[in-house]
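sry for the spam today, last one i promise. struct tokens for design, 123 residues
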């Protein structure tokens, strides 16, 4: 069974930085897409970033230029470097994997999630 475990969340002031990590246990194809999704109370789930096996990254407009997604297939890990954080970035951040990156932006039954890590940005 595939399990994803996120870490690295926390509380920072606006303008600060955090680096989220995700370790995947169990087998997933290196061709699977990895990504990050976030959700705040009362708001819809939002895709943040995705990275397929070829490394072609995609970002939500709200985080472009501030967040960087990466992956290490040898270690079965994914990362999200978050800089210039804003209060509106406050959310639970989930690591996800899916056979195609469409499953990150529009999760389906094939999308697998972690339990999430909380990011809180104060003004």
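last one done:
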């Amino acid at each position: 069974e595939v399990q994803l475990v996120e870490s690295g969340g926390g509380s920072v002031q606006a303008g600060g930085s955090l680096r989220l990590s995700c370790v995947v246990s169990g087998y997933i194809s290196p061709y699977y897409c990895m990504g990050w999704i976030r959700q705040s109370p009362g708001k819809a789930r939002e895709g943040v970033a995705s990275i397929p096996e070829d490394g072609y990254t995609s970002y939500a407009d709200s985080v472009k230029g501030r967040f960087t997604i990466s992956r290490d297939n040898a270690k079965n890990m994914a990362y999200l470097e978050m800089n210039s954080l804003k209060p509106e970035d406050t959310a639970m951040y989930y690591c996800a994997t899916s056979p195609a990156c469409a499953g990150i932006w529009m999760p389906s039954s094939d999308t697998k999630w972690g339990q999430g890590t909380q990011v809180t940005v104060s003004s």
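The radius of gyration is 13 Å. ok im logging off now
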